[in-house]
Amino acid sequence: MYSWDDDTSGWLGAARYSYGDAGKDARDEAARRAAVRGPRTYERKAGPNEGMVDPRKRVETTSRNPLVVAVDVTGSMSQWPFEIFDRLPLLYNTLVQYREDLEILFAAIGDAGVDRWPLQVTDFAKGYDLEQQLGALYGEGGGGDAPESYGVFAWWMQHHVRVPNAERPFLIVFGDAPMHEKVPAGQLQKLVGYPPPQAKAKGFTGALLGWNQGDIDAVATWQQVAQTWDTWFLRRPTGRAGDEVDQQWTRALGRERVFRIDDEQRAVDYAMGIVARAWGRLGDFEQNMLARQDEKKVKSVAERIRRDGPRVLACPSCSARIPAEAFGRYACSYCGNTLEL
Ligand SMILES: [Zn+2]
């Protein structure tokens, strides 16, 4: 169990890791509040905190570095809020070193056809407030067979979330299923409020499939979301590479943003690694992982992220172009900032 303080001596790896000075104030504040509250717990409960996770709300953050972590919580995925909760201090404390105004929003996705709470969304929060936000979610564990309501969530992201200061924020989706191709207008109205009138065009695809006026095309909505958000589908190790789940998500996000996880236990590491690489801090993140896991595993995760993770084409500090062959430690020739690629 990771804690909110800077003490990493209980980590299981052979290497040592110390958090850097950046983000220290935020970590200290979280550690202070955690100490007052006592040991961390993730209680079993009968449902979410409905007041906190109601998707009819609109959220906004002025953070330049917001991060959204969405988890399919149907069936086999229902334990995932717990998995993430377990590593929550690690997730925040690690990434806040790289971008100090980091704020995180969590979403739990189910199937609107059969679940009682098919979309739960928190607010953006930082530090110890994340405990309360994440703790409000509920892994319902229902879902029908296969397609889930990822499209309702995409709609919510597109119309209920504002991040006016963010340049290219990250949206990480953990899942293992395809999405319902259309979101019925009535379902959307019930869950998140009535869609605005400009969304009512149904287009050629809709006509072909017999959709009703106002129904939403889920894949097209994800394509819109991905224009603002650097969106990654991290897929649990199920199915075959290139199967229909991969194909549908490829239509939604592009092939390079569908990332098959080979080791479920490392799911949060892959998410952190993808963000760390884009922010030019993969080297530090490797040290972080080495303090928790054996070297072979760290090597395989880092290699995978270098190969299939985000391309770092510009310096995160000054936007100067980075040569394609740059590898490992690289000093930006324009601003001098050292990147770990
Ligand atoms: Zn630079």
Topology, pairings included?
Layout: H1 24-37, H2 50-53, E1 59-60, E2 66-72, H3 80-86, H4 88-98, E3 103-109, E4 119-121, H5 129-135, H6 150-160, E5 161-162, E6 170-175, E7 182-183, H7 185-192, H8 203-209, E8 216-217, H9 218-228, E9 230-235, H10 244-253, E10 258-260, H11 267-278, H12 282-290, H13 295-308, E11 329-331, E12 338-340
Parallel strand pairs: 1-5, 2-3, 2-6, 6-9, 9-10
Antiparallel strand pairs: 3-4, 7-8, 11-12
The structure holds zinc ion (ZN).
Largest sheet: 6 strands, mixed
Q: What best-fitting shape do the alpha-carbon axes yield? A: globular
Strand order of the largest sheet: 4-3-2-6-9-10
User: What's the number of helices?
Assistant: 13
Strand composition percent: 5-15%
Jot down its keywords.
12 strands, 6-stranded mixed beta sheet, two-stranded parallel sheet, alpha/beta, 341 residues, single chain, Rossmann fold, binds zinc ion, 2 domains
Task: Describe it.
This protein is an alpha/beta fold. The protein folds into two domains: 24-310, von Willebrand factor, type A domain (Rossmann fold); 315-341, no CATH class. The chain has helices at 24-37, 50-53, 80-86, 88-98, 129-135, 150-160, 185-192, 203-209, 218-228, 244-253, 267-278, 282-290, 295-308; strands at 59-60, 66-72, 103-109, 119-121, 161-162, 170-175, 182-183, 216-217, 230-235, 258-260, 329-331, 338-340. The chain has a six-stranded mixed beta sheet with strand order 4-3-2-6-9-10, with helices on both faces. A two-stranded parallel ribbon has the order 1-5. A two-stranded antiparallel sheet has the order 7-8. A hairpin with a 6-residue loop joins strand 11 and strand 12. The radius of gyration is 20 Å and the shape is globular. 45% of the residues are buried. The site of zinc ion has 8 residues, from loops.
